[in-house]
Specification:
Elements lengths: L16 H14 L3 H28 L1 H33 L15
Helix pairs in contact: 2-3
Protein name: Ribbon-helix-helix protein, CopG family
InterPro entries: CopG (IPR002145)
Pfam family, one: RHH_1
Length: 110
C-alpha cells in the first residue's frame, strides 16, 4: 500500500514549556497529533492574520494614509468612550436619591 505524501509546506516552531505542556495534553485528550492541532489553530487564526497583513501592507505603501486612518480610529474610540462615560454618569444620576432624607426616630439633629 502506497503511503500518502503530504504536499503542504512544513514549518518548525519552538514553543515555550507551558505551550508545549498544553499542546501535549490537548493531543493526548483529543487523540490527535500535535501537528494537526497546531495546523487547525493557524487555520482558525488566518482571518485575523490576513487583516494584520493588509494593515501592514497599507502602512508600507502609504504611511501617511495609515497615520490618518489610525488618527481617525483613535478619535472615534475616544468619542465612543466619552459617550459611554456620559451614559454611565446619567445612569448613576438617575439612581441617586435627590433632596433631603426623611428623619427617623433616634437620628441626631443636625
Amino acid at each position: 500500500m502506497a503511503r500518502k505524501v503530504n504536499r503542504n509546506p512544513r514549518v518548525q516552531v519552538t514553543l515555550s514549556p507551558e505551550a508545549m505542556a498544553v499542546l501535549d495534553e490537548l493531543a493526548i485528550l483529543s487523540e490527535q497529533p500535535r501537528s494537526a492541532i497546531l495546523s487547525e489553530l493557524v487555520d482558525v487564526a488566518l482571518p485575523a492574520m490576513s487583516v494584520t497583513l493588509e494593515a501592514l501592507r497599507v502602512v508600507r505603501r502609504q504611511p501617511e494614509e495609515a497615520r490618518k486612518l489610525l488618527s481617525q480610529f483613535a478619535h472615534q474610540q475616544t468619542a465612543h468612550l466619552a459617550q459611554a462615560q456620559l451614559d454611565l454618569d446619567a445612569s448613576l444620576d438617575a439612581r441617586t436619591v435627590k433632596g433631603r432624607r426623611r428623619k427617623m426616630k433616634g437620628d441626631p439633629i443636625g
